[in-house]
Amino acid sequence: MSRPQEPHRPFLPFGNPFRMLSPKGSYLSPKLLALLNTFEETLAGRIKKLQPAGREDVLRLSWMRCAMDSLCEIHTDVKTLITALELPVCDWDDKWIDVYLDNSVKLLDICIAFSSETSRLKQGHLFLQCVSHNLSDASPKQFVRARSSLDGWRQHTASKNPRLDNCFCAMDGLAQKLDLPKIKNSAKGKILMRAMYGVKVVTLLVCSIFAAAFSGSAKKLMDLQVPETCLWAEAFADLQTFVNTEIRSLYSSGRVTVLKELEAVDTGVKKLYPLVQDGADSVEAEALIDLTSGLGKSAENLSQGLDLLAKEVDRFFQIVLTGRDALLSNLRAGGGGQLNDK
């Protein structure tokens, strides 16, 4: 039975970060505006690359890997911008530092949760390997073992990962503080905060999509409004609308999972289970071979996809961590340096 359509998460309230670029206050030189425009145009290009070619491409592990790779690039871009602004940490306002440190610790928590979930799903691969091994010998005893392994896979994938709760809390914390601190008398600070706003919004969207995929629910999807004055606003809106609409449609149709590779394994398990349950006497050897082979291929695709995604999540974790460590090191040393990886 299909579940009722889950309500859309309301648009999240936030202050207008673009008032800081009004004529009042610090003058923005052509050089600073050029730096900002370059950053935002690059951000728009990275978002456009994430637009799925079609509905079937939404939440493939390959797409999720590309999304995490894009976050790595975007967070590297903002470090490059900080260097180009020639804005040493000693000139940072305490509010900017608080924003950066608060955001980074939440992102690290989110990465830990995602890493935990990819590892948990990867562990389920052992059950599927046992199925293939046991069905290589179509004896009654081996059928019992294969059925036990299939049951183990079902129970494993149906279980919940408590670390995802930490991820949800971190995402909510990021969403509640999308508004930026008011910047006075610092043109470079205004550019920095506007760039960080863009990074934060795109990161939050990707994390909410991952959370929806891993949690088995569309409740954690976020619909974020972005002022049209952003050069990346249109690309962001197109991506958010397309992906969120498809995920909500999948869940409303009764799907247990929206991860394409995981769904392929589940389909293979459902087809194979009745044959294993009925016993060796009623199973046609050719059908058993075909279904077992198909499940093995789907399981391998899932395992390889999770491995590659886990590497990207770890890379993003390291980028966030090194940026945070660099800022803290500069603060301890008196704040004379730039926010660069060491």
Please give a structural write-up.
The protein is an all-alpha fold. 68% of the residues lie in helices and 0% in strands. It contains ten helices and no strands. It has helices at 30-49, 61-85, 94-123, 125-134, 140-158, 163-176, 187-215, 233-252, 260-278, 285-332. The chain is elongated, with a radius of gyration of 24 Å. The chain starts with 29 loop residues before the first helix and ends in a 10-residue tail after the last helix. The model is unreliable at 1-25 (pLDDT under 50). Belongs to the ROH1 family. The chain crosses the membrane at residues 191-214.
The run of helices and strands is HHHHHHHHHH
What percent of residues are in strands? Answer: under 5%
What structural class do the secondary elements suggest?
mainly alpha
Could you estimate the helical fraction of the residues in percent? Answer: 55-70%
Oligomer state of the chains in this structure: single chain
* CA-based gyration radius: 24 Å
How many helices? The count is: 10
- In round numbers, the mean pLDDT is 85
How many strands appear in the DSSP assignment? Answer: 0
What number of structural domains do the residues give? 1
Describe the main β-sheet briefly.
Answer: none
Distance between the termini: 55 Å
Gross morphology = elongated
Low-confidence residue ranges:
1-25
